[in-house]
Specification:
Radius of gyration: 20 Å
Structural class: alpha+beta
Shape: globular
Order of helices and strands: HEEEEEHEEEEE
Number of domains: 1
CATH topology: Immunoglobulin-like
Largest sheet: 5 strands, mixed
CATH architecture: Sandwich
Strand content: 35-45%
Strand order of the largest sheet: 2-1-4-8-7
Number of strands: 10
Number of helices: 2
Length: about 180
């Protein structure tokens, strides 16, 4: 046995990179709006795009966060985050409110913590439906990212977080109903 050929190792790495580029190009050119209706809403890294009009738009400014709708049907949902704040990274969350709690309960927690965008501890009566850092977002523009995920019927809230010290911006409530 001799010393491995360095040229062969470089060729193997180069071949792998080229194969990844080709697969990515094929995946991107093979997508169309017609296919998005059957898109997977897996939140473990999906990069499927859906038209923004088929979902929820969330806008974060320097001092507030707002969402475009407060109700939707269950199933795949597109969330487009527009970050008009000074923060470079803004995690967005969709949480399911359980045990009969409402968006007003979250507002009360924030008011008790100091109001505005004051940070408050996560209550036990929420479960996460979307944590943006668990997905690979689709970059739609310089300050816009899109996430696609599924929601079961129920009451939800949307919020963004970030900054130092940590802040939470409540963006809105979302009622999800059966078709």
């Amino acid at each position: 046995m001799g010393v491995p050929d360095e040229g062969a190792a470089v060729d193997t790495i180069g071949s792998r990179v080229l194969a990844l580029v080709v697969v990515a190009a094929l995946a991107l050119t093979g997508c169309s709006d017609d296919q998005s209706e059957d898109a997977s809403a897996d939140t473990t890294g999906a990069t499927t795009t859906m038209p923004a009009s088929d979902g929820l738009e969330v806008v974060l400014t320097q001092d507030r966060c707002v969402s475009s709708t407060d109700e939707t049907l269950h199933g795949p949902l597109s969330l487009v985050l527009t970050n008009d704040s000074e923060l470079t990274t803004v995690p967005v969350y969709v949480i399911k409110l359980t045990e009969g709690h409402t968006y007003a309960d979250l507002e009360e927690l924030q008011d008790a913590a100091g109001g505005g965008s004051a940070y408050f501890a996560r209550p036990e009566w929420i479960t996460y439906a979307l944590r943006s850092f668990e997905q690979i977002p689709v970059q739609l523009g310089a300050n816009q990212t899109q996430y696609v995920f599924d929601l079961d019927p129920g009451e939800y809230a949307i919020y963004a977080s970030g900054g130092r010290p940590e802040q939470i911006w409540l963006c809105g409530s979302l009622a999800v109903s059966e078709a």
